[in-house]
Amino acid sequence: MAHGHTNTEARAAHPQASALKTGLLLTLLALLLAAPFFLYPIFLMKLLCFALFAAAFNLLLGYTGLLSFGHAAFFGGAAYFTGHAVKVWGFPPELGILLGMAGAAVLGLVMGLIAIRRQGIYFAMITLALSQMFFFFCVQSSFTHGEDGLQSIPRGHLFGFINLSDTTNMYFFVLAVFLIGMALIWRIVNSPFGMILKSIRENENRAISLGYSVARYKLAAFVMSATLTGMAGGLKALVFQFATLTDVTWQMSGEVILMTLLGGIGTLIGPVFGAGIVVTLQNYLATSDFPVTIITGVVFMACVLLFRRGLVGEFYASRIGRSLGFNPEK
Amino acid sequence: MTMIFGIPVQALMGQLLVGLINGSFYALLSLGLAVIFGLLRVINFAHGAQYMLGAFVALLLATHGGIGYWPALILAPLIVGLFGAVIERTMLSRLYSLDPLYGLLFTFGLALTIEGTFRYFFGASGSPYAAPPSLGGGVNLGFMFLPVYRGWVVVASLVVCLGIWLLIEKTKLGAYLRAATENPTLVQSFGVNVPLLLTLTYGLGAGLAGFAGVLAAPVYQVSPLMGSNLIIIVFAVVVIGGMGSILGAIVTGYLLGIAEGLTKVFYPEASNIVVFVIMAIVLILRPAGLFGKDV
């Protein structure tokens, strides 16, 4: 995905844009802090989990140019790891999530080592096949409890004294983890390491000729993306108190691609919006008998055909966005 | 009872046959994927949905039009192929100038839409589709009992695979196709209508998937999701074979079907994942795939 979108974050040198961005971010933060008093907290927590998932996925697709069709393995896998650690081993929630992240990282390392041997479209197909393999592993292993899934995972006490069974406490814990995750992604994207990732996305051969060992950078980005995805997956297991096969299916990998595409590939905030729209839509349609897959499919096709930059990306590139200085170079 | 490696020969032969039948479908589908990819540089994620579409068209022709198996075996691929051609002309063709990943994402959306629609109207459960009476019954081969229809599946898929291979390697149309794969601009400048060639190719690939669907209808249940898990295995087959070669796609399809069948005999727990394991091993030892040239 080397063209069609430009990286806007790193280039927001325009003072107006950065002031506007700070303002927007603060408004968003204020909304998130106030939201649980107006909206159903479980829905909000689900939204935050998926927003972090999509942002972590975008680290790979948007900033490195690698399309993984297997991120469900990290998301659902970490949900199982965290759930198992908390329920069976009695880990506290914070350690449970760290363990889920570690598990996702190992999984990411193994899958990444195999998948980066091919590029482009093959990379997508290989990650899809490997995650399907992990899905069958989850169907058959005993610790996942197969079709039943891992049920009634306790939320426990954060740092030993904050009771997470309380929904408000849980919400602010989820929000804190979400913000930490987003800050990490922001830090990675705007680091020298992130610049090298972008150079690989723009022109892999040139990055090689400049002496960068591209395979290692790709692998590092893949593992980081998997780890942060694991953060979202482990969090989701604690929010819903179960981990099931649904989170490991290829449909879940497709969903996160849709969220990212819809919001805006290669924008920091786009995947968050995309996740918000998709989760809201699913919530809304859950009560009707009209299948979500049809809408998902049509939105997918419309995104690819009509607005490949995604909603946020199109806004940045629009006349209003440009006049506000979001996209000074194009 | 005769035993081979401690396994009754009948069980072994039975699973080998199942493997060969699965392999027939892998070969037909990966052949279609390879033909489409060769010219369009698009990985057709909707291939599984088009396979399902073929089976459903045959089923609907039978229930609503009273049209039997043999006409359906011709009609259904034509209908699915036509559908594919329309999709290519109206939508997919707009994506050729972009990164190939957009083609994959578009066809993924298409697959979701088609499968979702059929699930909405026909439910998730499967419907049976009867094999034609002329192919009913079975033959006793001495060491095993062979249902005639299953033998027909293997023969039909072999003949079609061989036919497509000959079409591409030995005819003038095939020569145009291969030339357009190498350099579409040059071929167009010689007066060949390359956009039409692209449409025909996608229609042919979709039609092949539809044909596989009709062939599969009496073996498996006709259900909206029959293609969605299959397509991932076929992707792995294509990665193993390497997308460059038509013959490679066919041979790999059959080999992996048989490998899967054998795994079912010797280590049933791994039969779901054996294709993916082989894929991982091939990628480590020979990243370009068994028959591939490009990485």
Automatic annotation (TrEMBL), chain A:
Signal peptide: none annotated. It is found in: Cell membrane. This is Branched-chain amino acid ABC transporter permease. GO terms for cellular component: plasma membrane. Coiled coil: none annotated. InterPro entries: ABC_transp_permease (IPR001851), LivM-like (IPR043428). One of its GO terms (molecular function) is branched-chain amino acid transmembrane transporter activity. It is a multi-pass membrane protein. Its main location: membrane. Keywords: Cell membrane, Membrane, Transmembrane, Transmembrane helix. The keyword Nucleotide-binding does not apply. The chain crosses the membrane at residues 24-43, 50-75, 95-114, 121-143, 170-189, 219-244, 256-278, 290-307. It comes from Cereibacter changlensis JA139. The keyword NAD does not apply.
Automatic annotation (TrEMBL), chain B:
It is a multi-pass membrane protein. Keywords: Amino-acid transport, Cell membrane, Membrane, Transmembrane, Transmembrane helix, Transport. The chain crosses the membrane at residues 12-35, 42-62, 68-88, 100-122, 142-168, 196-218, 230-258, 270-289. One of its GO terms (biological process) is amino acid transport. CDD domains: TM_PBP1_LivH_like. GO terms for molecular function: transmembrane transporter activity. Its main location: membrane. InterPro entries: ABC_transp_permease (IPR001851), BCAA_transport_permease (IPR052157). It holds the Pfam family BPD_transp_2. Signal peptide: none annotated. GO terms for cellular component: plasma membrane. It is found in: Cell membrane. PANTHER family: ABC TRANSPORTER ATP-BINDING PROTEIN, BRANCHED-CHAIN AMINO ACID TRANSPORT SYSTEM PERMEASE PROTEIN LIVH. Belongs to the binding-protein-dependent transport system permease family. LivHM subfamily. This is Branched-chain amino acid ABC transporter permease. It comes from Cereibacter changlensis JA139.
